[in-house]
Amino acid sequence: MRHEIIRMEHVNISRPGRHEIEDLNLIICRGYSMGVAGVENSKEILADFFEGKGTLARGRIYLDGQPWKPEGKRDFEDAGIFVISKDTVYMDSLDVSENLFLLRRNSLRKIRLNEKALHIQGRALLEKYDLPYAADEHSSHLKNGDRILIGMVRAITQGARILVLREIVSCFPGEERRKLRQFVNRLKQDGITVISIDNRADFTDPFFDEVILFRHHTIYKKICQSEDTWMIDEILKRGLEAADTTIPEVRDASGKPQRKPVDFFVWETFRDGSWQPQISMRAGEILAALGTPGQVDGVWSDILRSNAMQSRFELDGEIIAYKNIQELMKHRIALMEYGNHTEICENLTNEENILLPTYPRICSAFGFYQKQQKYILEDNFLGLDRRDIELLNPETEAWKIGIYRYKLFHPRVLILKNMLQNLNVREVAWLKRELREIVGRGSSVLLLENESKVCVDVADRLEVIA
After folding, report:
1. Is the N-terminal amide bond of 206 cis, ω within 30° of 0?
2. 37 with 214: CB under 8 angstroms?
3. b/e string for 28-54 if b means 16 or more Cβ within 10 A?
4. Contact 323, 307 (CB under 8 A)
5. Which parts of the sequence belong to the ABC transporter domain (predicted)?
6. By the 8 A CB rule, do 195 and 160 touch?
């Protein structure tokens, strides 16, 4: 698992003369690359905040697991967070090595500068990061992109752990962009995190681990680059409004118009004489609700035992009061618990278990059953090899069969209990890819988990169960 550097929980960031960023939930890990984009000024407010110009109006920020309230640029730099922009400080009268060590805080304490040692250190840094500059090279002919790279190395010499790149992509035209990608990948190998705040859609391959899209002054969607590059390009080229039409249109499995995705999902309980929301989420979002094992079991029991605990769902403005799980399924709210195999029938094949919700209807077609099954599993959006499906072990991989089932029938809301914490690293990566496919079609996924570490790379947002 990646080491967590910064965690933001329900943070509001204000900047004079601009709207606030609202309800920002974000985890920044070591050696991670993240893109931040949006058609409003939210990304600029975030960049200002990292430069020490914004104000923490609400919420909590944790640095290395400890509460942290930065109050200026110095606090961010002490924490190893540096912002690099196209206007990065660079002096033409100094050579490359001298610019590498420019503005170091201890430089003013030195009465005499050892020029030879400076060039030796500069040469070592340039070789380490494969930058094609000579240590004693004069600076006047360097392009703006070259100066930005040198500025990034300078920040590293000052202890940078997170580099925030503020709209610098335009300084790297054509083949120059490859140099930037290679440099950033080298930084990630050293555990340095890179956050690019930019709207350039042609800079997504394969730079980002994830892209965060802002809309209406809050996080609209968090996209995993490796699976959804097409989505990033389309949205950034056409604007965030394209997200409402592009995603369901491209991800539609059956080719038929789908029901409108849930705009807002709320689980409420009746307490103290009124209905009180406990968990709320947006369409196309993966939310991890974290708590102790007892708290997670309590939420799960409240959902399952509606009559006893008086709980209900609000789905896209529609109140759903239910008496059993079957009624929830009619509204396309699906639940799955790791290790619970009650929905896997031993007398059916893996393919038949995936198709279980429609199995009786398909079987009624008699001789057409095999043809229908082949069409759904192979010619539909799953794109699976039937041999791989049959190799799944129902005893240890029943959860995969369940995920394939819900990937095929795409519920409006999918609730998973204790899933991530019981999987290994490879299985978590597999599940993340599948969940991204599910939420890409407008479904919402709720993860009930005990540990925050396992949710960092999967969930868009984390909440603590009250």
Report:
1. yes
2. yes
3. bbebbbbbbbbeebbbbbbbbbbbbeb
4. yes
5. 6-241
6. no
Which tokens in the block code for residue 216?
């209406």
**SS3 of 356, please?**
helix
Instruction: Tell me the torsion sign for CA atoms 239, 245, 247, 251.
Output: negative
- Calpha distance 7→435 (Å, rounded): 23
Beta-bridge mates of residue 314: 266, 319
248 touches 441 (CB < 8 A): yes
pLDDT digits (tens, 9 = 90+) for 358-415: 544 444 444 444 555 555 555 444 455 556 677 777 777 888 888 888 877 778 889 9
Cα gap 177→171, rounded to integer Å: 9
Name the residue among 76, 91, 207 with its Cα closest to residue 151.
Answer: 91
Domains in the chain (CATH in brackets) are 4-249 (3.40.50.300), 264-344+394-464 (3.40.50.300)
pTM of the model: 0.54
Closest CA to 436 of 211, 260, 236: 211
Other beta carbons within 10 Å of 134: 13
Structure tokens at 457: 């790379």
Closest CA to 212 of 449, 47, 401: 47
